[in-house]
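Holo prediction. Input below; ligand is coenzyme A.
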Amino acid sequence: MQLCDVLLRPCTADDLVALEAWAPTGNSRVHAMRFAHQEAGTSTYFLAVRRQEPGTVVGSCELRWNGCAATEVPRCPEANGLQVWPPDLQSHGIGTQMLGLLEHEARERGHHTLGLGVGDPRPKRLYLRLGYVDTGPDYLDRYTWIDEHHREHHVAERTRWMMKPLTGGRLEAGRL
Ligand SMILES: CC(C)(COP(=O)(O)OP(=O)(O)OC[C@H]1O[C@@H](n2cnc3c(N)ncnc32)[C@H](O)[C@@H]1OP(=O)(O)O)[C@@H](O)C(=O)NCCC(=O)NCCS
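Structure of the complex:
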């Protein structure tokens, strides 16, 4: 069932307090970090809002124009941190709409492929359905989160790279 139609818009500085209330990230300040990447010109931090109620955020994704930080991954823009929130909105077609809109944004900038990393089988099913190809490689997605005592935790998660051709053509699945 489709719960709502969504639009994408770039995050602004005025959104940051409300975003922390919407999907709290504690001392990691993930929304502010993604917005800083946008300010630096390397990303656009897209917010998905209800078409009928543009003040209501239902999802977010950072489109990293410079691609994935892991050097072994092929160069193309990366949809990083795709999420639909709160959880009761998941599985109602919003993520599918968001990916279609993100692909449009990448195509508009002249890109021929969009990539993303996936660690879990469940979202991977969605990406395969939407035409993303399991090209690989496997790589370590490295990030840091900061706990309530301001201690840093460095994480490296095994992740599979997938890509979708945006302007025709085919991509070969990689070796597992
Ligand atoms: C993954 C996610 C963005 C998809 O958006 P969505 O609006 O739920 O997806 P859609 O309704 O368009 O499509 C449904 C598919 O999404 C995936 N999905 C749905 N809920 C999910 C969840 N809680 N966690 C992971 N994947 C989920 C499944 O593949 C589902 O297909 P299925 O019903 O055959 O299992 C969203 O579920 C989410 O934010 N999940 C938690 C964070 C996450 O896992 N992000 C992916 C990072 S790679």
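The chain has one domain: 6-165. That is the main takeaway for now.
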